[in-house]
From TrEMBL:
Region spans: Disordered: 1-136
Record protein name field: Uncharacterized protein
InterPro entries xrefs: DUF6496 (IPR045468)
Organism: Rhizomicrobium palustre
Biased amino acid composition, Basic residues: 1-12, 57-70, 84-136
């Protein structure tokens, strides 16, 4: 077997950690991986160390995994960030209240002022007067 790089070993270790703690999901379906062999296959695939992939597929897999780790979307990162997620959810609620107040202010700002109302009434009366004058 070919020698793996430090990053590949790190990714493999992370995936196996997720498997041990029941956080490793199966692709888009999202079911939990129960087989150790399947977990190893996923780990090698994500790390780009699998012998079943072509070099281009390995590069794509490595890129995808790096992006996933940077975003914090891996199962391990989600589990560790559980407490912070709850805090951010609370802060989102407070920001929602602020945005509703802003929208109420906007509504009052966009309401028609008395001078605009008068101008609109004049236009409307002119239209109706011009319609009445023309014979049918």
């Amino acid at each position: 077997m070919a020698k793996t790089t430090r990053r590949q070993r790190k990714t493999t270790g992370r995936v196996m950690h997720e498997f041990k703690h029941g956080e490793l999901g199966r692709g888009r379906a999202g079911g939990k991986v129960k087989s150790r062999k399947q977990a190893i296959a996923i780990a090698l695939s994500e790390a780009g160390a699998s012998n079943r992939q072509s070099p281009t597929q390995k590069r794509k897999a490595r890129k995808k995994t790096t992006k996933k780790q940077a975003r914090g979307v891996t199962g391990q990162q989600r589990q560790e960030a559980g407490k912070t997620v709850k805090r951010t959810a609370l802060s989102k609620k407070t920001t929602r209240k602020k945005t509703t107040r802003k929208s109420a202010q906007r509504k009052t700002a966009t309401r028609k002022t008395p001078t605009r109302k008068i101008a609109l009434r004049k236009k409307a009366t002119k239209r109706t007067v011009s319609r009445k004058k023309t014979p049918r």
